[in-house]
Design goal:
With 177 residues, the chain is α+β, with helices and mostly antiparallel strands. Helices cover 28% and strands 31% of the residues. Strands 4-3-2-1-7-6-5 form a seven-stranded antiparallel β-sheet, sandwiched between helices. It is globular. One of its GO terms (biological process) is cell differentiation.
Length: 177
């Protein structure tokens, strides 16, 4: 039975060999285990951060444990952009906690609202889109995200460091809805 013999709504038994082949194709297209590992870490952090919220992924029909859901459009979550801050190092939990605290204080002091965004996680990277306009604010390839940290004082907030030694490192603070 070929894949063209299958009709919409029907399922086909899949062998272990086909599953392994599919995973190898995903690894080859994504750049290897490192990229999938970073995507998994990012996904796990987002899932942990927003476990107690009412937010739902945009596409609920995809299997939650299937890495192939990051192919194509990927997975999207609603969030708010706390802010962006230049940082000195590519990694460091204490530095990230301080950056998040500084960004939160700046927002409170200015009396502004956080920008509503949609975080899209796909095999080609992380996209931050404006909720109102749909414009892509930032696109960060996974291999340039050097560190991800959860806020110790707020389980729905996290941040990540993006950049390189040549261009500098920027911390992006985000709070999930």
């Amino acid at each position: 039975m070929s894949s063209s013999d299958i009709k919409v709504g029907e399922t086909k038994p899949v062998s272990d060999k086909e599953v392994i082949h599919t995973k190898n194709v995903i690894l080859k297209e994504s750049g290897g285990w490192d990229t999938l590992g970073r995507l998994s870490t990012l996904k796990r952090n987002l899932k942990t951060l927003s476990a107690h919220t009412s937010r739902k992924p945009v596409d609920e029909n995809k299997d939650k444990n299937e890495p192939s859901r990051f192919l194509g459009e990927g997975v999207s979550y609603k969030a708010k952009l706390i802010g962006i801050l230049e940082v000195s190092d590519p990694r460091g939990d204490r530095m990230c906690q301080e950056a998040l605290a500084d960004l939160k204080m700046a927002i409170r002091a200015a009396g502004e609202h956080k920008q509503r965004i949609t975080i899209n996680i796909a095999i080609d990277g992380l996209r931050l889109r404006d909720d109102k306009t749909g414009d892509c604010l930032y696109h960060h390839p996974v291999h340039k995200i050097s560190f991800i940290a959860q806020d110790m004082s707020d389980s729905r907030a996290f941040g990540y460091i993006f950049g390189s030694p040549d261009t500098g490192h920027r911390f992006f603070g985000i709070k999930t809805d």
